[in-house]
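User: What would this chain look like folded?
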Amino acid sequence: MTAAVDVQATASRWLDAEPDEDIRDELRALLDGPSGELTARFGGRLTFGTAGLRAEVGAGPLRMNRLVVRQATAGLAAYVLATDTRAGERGVVIGFDGRRKSDVFAMDTARVMAAAGIRALLLPGPVPTPVVAWSLTDLDAAAAVVVTASHNPPQDNGYKVYLGDGAQIVPPHDAEISARIAEFDPTTVALSAHDDALIERLGGSAVERYVASAPAARRTPEVPGVEVAYTPMHGVGGEILLRAFAAAGLDAPAVVDAQFRPDATFPTVSFPNPEEPGAMDLVIALAAEGGAVLAIANDPDADRLGAAIPQPDGSWRRLGGDELGWLLADHILRHTDGDDR
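Assistant: Here's the prediction, encoded as structure tokens.
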């Protein structure tokens, strides 16, 4: 059997199992088109690494779709069951951002976990990635999954994994999970019912506990705040940030209205990464207009922060991650001592 026939056969099996009609239509067109395009989708599988999975949404094992998510979840479930004797009862926290198909991918993740005998702790609605990581430790779960492609272009989606310490996975865990994933056929992964008793919808209390932790993050409440302008860059950070500011006793920032609500198309930015030149133009303009002394921006899943400050000549300077770290450390060292640090 030739490689071309192998790819055709694999794609045909995938078509039979694919649950989404838009992906099925795409796959039918690929099967009728040049073989090279089909090989580009079915000539391997996505590599699972420390950042999990990330790719354009589309048909086949080299794209992000429901079958790839199911296979990844089956492998992760096998890994946590093999490495944690209490994984089933501790459960796995599941969150998602506002991208295309994120909610569906998250529900499939929950159904695969439940079918494997693991509690699936599903956070309510699109939430920032830090809420998911924080909830992992807050709930003493075995692991967490976030369906997100972070600051990638709008056509992408992804799948991040966190383990019991609330940190993103590091070697060798990524390789061990990847090996488990390879053991499963994506077209035959077991699924529970949507209303399985092991799927627990957490409600708003998990997010409320996260927001309630914000005052503790403000190590020096006696130091007055400053005027701030903010944008979530069409992502999921906006509402949570406003609530966290209020909980910490800070005045609400001015917000970029055009970028405040989640929008999977990111219509006002070509690349929604606050570290990219031009990405913070709208929030910097708002800050300059309103007299703010700090402009901040999250990426779409709100696990990355960009900041900019005004210069004497009226221009604005973006701060790098190292600079932000130095400034935060300097502030803490100046205003705290002993165990307060």
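The radius of gyration is 22 Å. If you want, I can go into more detail on any region.
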